[in-house]
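Board notes, transcribed. Complex of a protein with protoporphyrin IX containing FE.
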Amino acid sequence: MAEHPDRADLILRHEPRERVLHWLVAVTFLFAAASGLALFHPALFWLAGALGGGTWSVVLHPFVGLAMALLFYAFARPLWADNRLTPGDRVWLRGLRDVVDGREDRLPEVGKYNAGQKVLYFVLVACLVLLLLSGLVIWRRYFAGYFPGRVVRLGALLHAFAAFVIVLGIVVHVAAALWLKGSVGAMTRGTVTLGWAWKHHRAWFRELVRPTGGR
Ligand code: HEM
């Protein structure tokens, strides 16, 4: 088990590489979302003011979006195995009320990620794939000319749909991270307390403390 050098009750949850990639994804997401919304509707154009103006928003949006997709791939690819859904996850999802009420002990023990995080993970993967593909199709400067007009229009529709879902998904993700005390530290310092792991991710905790299974 990887212990924190200064505090024996802290364990490593996210390696530095993972944390750096996560926050790079978050920053590129915020830029892509704000510039995308600014271009989507005149009522939201004021957002472009914070990003250097309308021209910079138009020019940078696709490049930043592409960077976000590549960074997300590097970040999320190694997490695939830990996010595989199990039969216990279905029971956990049905018992969401107990999670909200802090009675997680009534539900199956949770591994590194809970079923809510796993579902969100796959929603994010699907959105990123859709945003990337549709984004390339509607990128006027380089690619849109290769596709018929109706394909570009369909691409624009799918792009807006995926953007809407991912923005909602990230609002839920951030709210859950702030709500669950101790989570944000997992992605900033990289560590959580043994108590946090025992309470919220008991199967992962057991794996870590198993003499041969720990990391
Ligand atoms: C903008 C503010 C954000 C905050 C405050 C935040 C917070 C966090 C925290 C605290 C964790 C660790 C949870 C744990 O260890 O149990 C985490 C994990 C994660 N975050 Fe974020 N995040 C943000 C943005 C994003 C964005 C923009 C994406 C992707 C588009 C993203 C994707 C993920 C993924 C995939 C995980 C791992 C969870 C899993 O694999 O199921 N996050 N985030």
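The beta strands are 10-12, 191-193. The chain has a mean pLDDT of 94.
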